[in-house]
Write a structure and sequence with these properties.
Largest interface: A-B, 22 and 17 residues
Helix content of chain B: over 70%
Order of helices and strands of chain A: EHEHEHEHHEHHEHHEH
Shape of chain B: elongated
Order of helices and strands of chain B: HHHH
Shape of chain A: globular
Number of strands of chain A: 7
Oligomer: heterodimer
Helix content of chain A: 40-55%
CATH topology of chain A: Spore Coat Polysaccharide Biosynthesis Protein SpsA, Chain A
Number of helices of chain A: 10
Structural class of chain B: mainly alpha
CATH superfamily of chain A: Spore Coat Polysaccharide Biosynthesis Protein SpsA, Chain A
Strand content of chain B: under 5%
Distance between the termini of chain A: 34 Å
Chain lengths: ~230, ~110
């Protein structure tokens, strides 16, 4: 089973090298493709120096567009399963083998990362190191619940985490899913495609390390606007 | 005749001349050209006899002609804005498609 990890990157020279190293350390057999979304720093050079495949956008098109390019590359290079992984070091590569297990066992065609699932298990175990404590509280209490509701309304699928960039697909699922949203609305876009094609999916717990706040509430309005205009175009 | 009427007449005459020039240069079809002519003729008519717009406005239940024209303009502007948004979105997607093709092609060479 050929697995390709797609890493969209925009100005991530500080993280990209470590992210690639971490993934390699976990599974040297996986192929990695970095999609440099027209970074203005040395992201491209750092990624190339790591010896992985790198494709570059000549103009910045957004994370959704970079994921589409990377997914297309992976399909062209015979991937049986494709992982979307962020370049900013938010995710833990160590969790990847467990994360894609449902795909490898043929149980699911898609797995989606969730910041909130582990919390329940941790609480059950009496462990207080739960992932949700690291999420800035305004994000945990206001932004994410609202985003979840809107996402549920738009996509028809209720997820415990509406905007998580870690996901994996089988080849068949990746061929069906059309990422039409160039910017951050690609997340809702992908979930809506899962519903549309009635694909089997599962949410898996992942840890998210916050180096910065990430997307702010204002980004939510931009996403809604993108979804609105996106709906008008085939 | 008021000064504003003279200014508006001159403006309309200028626009009609520009439209005619574009029609002669075959930049626009007969139908579009005629539609513009009718539109600007109506505009000239309203400038010449402003009370006409009030009469039309009252047919639609709006009190003043000037208000009616403003409402109409707003509707047209909103529609134009909406169309622009859709067109922009389409253009953005096309740019992304091109970017992707270029990236993949370039990636093959490396």
């Amino acid at each position: 089973m050929k697995t390709i990890v797609v890493i969209p990157a925009f100005n991530e020279e500080d993280h990209i090298g470590h992210v690639i190293q971490d993934i390699r350390a976990v599974s040297p057999a996986w192929d990695i493709v970095v999609v440099d979304d027209a970074s203005t720093d040395k992201t491209y050079e750092h990624a190339r120096a790591s010896g992985v495949a790198v494709v570059r956008h000549v103009v910045n098109r957004g994370q959704g567009a970079a994921l589409r390019t990377g997914t297309e590359w992976a399909l062209l290079h015979g991937a049986d399963s494709i992982i979307h992984f962020d370049a900013d070091g938010q995710f833990s590569a160590r969790e990847l083998p467990g994360f894609i297990e449902p795909l490898e066992k043929g149980k699911e065609t898609i797995v989606l990362g969730s910041r909130f699932l582990r919390v329940k298990t941790d609480q059950n175990n009496g462990d207080n190191s739960d992932a949700s404590k690291r999420i800035p509280w305004t994000k945990r209490v206001i932004i994410l619940p609202v985003a979840r509701l809107i996402n549920w309304y738009i996509t028809g699928i209720k997820l415990s985490d509406a905007h998580n960039g870690l996901r994996a697909f089988t080849r068949d699922a990746a061929l069906k899913i059309r990422i039409t949203q160039d910017r951050m609305a690609h997340n809702s876009n992908i979930v809506a495609e899962i519903k549309k094609h009635n694909l089997r999916f599962k949410e898996m717990p992942v840890t998210v390390y916050y180096h910065s706040y990430g997307q702010r509430a204002g980004a939510g309005f931009a996403i809604l606007s993108d979804l609105f205009f996106g709906k008008l175009i085939k | 005749m008021h000064a504003i009427q003279i200014v508006l007449f001159l403006l309309i005459a200028f626009v009609v001349l520009r439209v005619a020039a574009r029609f002669r240069a075959k930049d626009m079809g007969v139908l579009v050209f005629l539609s513009w002519l009718v539109f600007w003729a109506l505009a000239a008519l309203v400038v010449w006899r402003p009370e006409l717009s009030t009469e039309i406005a009252q047919v639609f239940g709006v009190g003043r002609g000037a208000d009616f024209v403003t409402y109409l303009a707003l509707i047209v502007l909103f529609y134009g804005f909406f169309r622009l948004g859709v067109r922009l979105e389409r253009q953005e997607r096309n740019i992304s498609k091109l970017t992707q093709v270029l990236a993949l092609r370039e990636g093959e060479k490396n």
